């Protein structure tokens, strides 16, 4: 026993030497990862620096990673407007309601399609996939929304983006991997199909649910096209469409001689300011659900 203990201690104390090739690979891989992170972060850091820089510095190309001629005139001009805060509030409402409804309807469609015993399973799946490649077109969609009296209505902004075929396919693949034995156990306990879905399947599907929350929230947050088509009232605009109109106005500003220094400053870096204000909330939310996002993409993307 004593000898065996000594041998075990010696085995633990022995350090495994890494081969030269593995050591080189490790350092090269680390260097590549650092370069990829730097390349990924640089555009956003550049936008932040530009949004706080002076018009002259931006025009002369002096801005890199740090602001030059620091000022906050653009942020003041945008944030002091009541229209911006109202549009931001609209976007939060649209994103929350739209994400919730999209999640509910996508789950209600994806879960039955994940059951091969469902009658007409293959036909229904092909029908859903068909909608990914073919649509009614812009004019028929607009006429439909008009006849449903959804122009200048919240539903007119939400419904066109309510269900995404790609997201449904991801969720269908994930639901199909749920152990069938667990559902059978639920049936033996007297649960209905809806009860099995709510009490067993959904708790096991948090990775794909979190992924869909992120996808849908980002989609509604950045959506300006539906507002352009279906919302004529300015008080209903989301912040993405509101900022687009500001950028368009700044880019097509009239005679420079009629524009004072402050307006020139706004015209120079308003695009950077707008992008920072748009992406900041999503960047703050992402770290909290990133682990679910990665897992959901890996598991939900497996084909049957």
Using only CA atoms, what is the Rg?
27 Å
Described by strand count, sense and barrel closure, the largest sheet is: none
Span between termini: 53 Å
Bin the strand percentage.
under 5%
Morphology: flat
Can you give the mean pLDDT? 79
Total E-strand runs: 0
Structural class: mainly alpha
- What is the number of helical segments per DSSP (H or I, 4+ residues)? 15
The poorly predicted ranges are: 253-262, 300-304
Order of helices and strands: HHHHHHHHHHHHHHH
Q: What percent of residues adopt helix (DSSP H or I)?
A: over 70%
Summarize the structure.
The protein has helices spanning 2-13, 20-51, 55-59, 73-79, 82-113, 121-133, 138-147, 154-158, 165-176, 180-188, 193-204, 206-222, 225-230, 239-251, 261-300. With 304 residues, it is mainly alpha-helical. The model is unreliable at 253-262 and 300-304 (pLDDT under 50).
Report on the architecture of this protein.
The protein has helices spanning 2-13, 20-51, 55-59, 73-79, 82-113, 121-133, 138-147, 154-158, 165-176, 180-188, 193-204, 206-222, 225-230, 239-251, 261-300. The model is unreliable at 253-262 and 300-304 (pLDDT under 50). The chain contains 15 helices and no strands. The radius of gyration is 27 Å and the shape is flat. By secondary structure, the chain is mainly alpha-helical.
């Amino acid at each position: 026993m004593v000898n065996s203990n000594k041998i075990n201690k010696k085995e633990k104390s022995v350090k495994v030497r890494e081969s030269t090739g593995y050591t080189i690979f490790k350092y090269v891989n680390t260097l590549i990862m650092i370069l990829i992170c730097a390349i990924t972060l640089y555009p956003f850091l550049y936008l932040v620096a530009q949004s706080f820089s002076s018009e002259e510095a931006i025009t002369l190309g002096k801005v890199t990673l740090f602001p030059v001629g620091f000022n906050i005139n653009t942020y003041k001009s945008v944030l002091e407007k009541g229209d911006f805060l109202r549009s931001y509030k609209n976007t939060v409402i649209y994103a929350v309601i739209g994400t919730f409804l999209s999640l509910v309807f996508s789950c209600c469609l994806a879960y039955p399609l994940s059951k091969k015993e469902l009658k007409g399973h293959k036909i229904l799946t092909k029908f859903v996939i068909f909608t990914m490649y073919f649509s009614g077109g812009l004019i028929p969609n607009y006429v439909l929304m008009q006849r449903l009296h959804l122009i200048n209505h919240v539903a007119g902004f939400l419904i066109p983006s309510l269900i995404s075929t790609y997201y449904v396919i991801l969720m269908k693949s994930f639901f199909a991997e749920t152990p069938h034995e667990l559902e059978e156990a639920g049936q033996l306990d007297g649960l209905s199909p809806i009860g099995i879905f709510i009490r067993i399947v959904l708790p096991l599907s948090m990775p794909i649910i979190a992924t869909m929350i992120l996808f849908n929230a980002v989609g509604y947050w950045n959506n300006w096209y539906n507002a352009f088509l279906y919302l004529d009232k300015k008080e209903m605009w989301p912040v993405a469409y509101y900022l687009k109109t500001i950028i368009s106005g700044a880019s097509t500003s009239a005679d420079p001689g009629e524009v004072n220094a402050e307006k020139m400053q706004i015209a120079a870096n308003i695009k950077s300011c707008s992008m920072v204000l748009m992406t900041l909330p999503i960047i703050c939310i992402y770290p909290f659900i990133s682990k679910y996002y990665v897992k959901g993409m890996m598991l939900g993307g497996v084909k049957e």
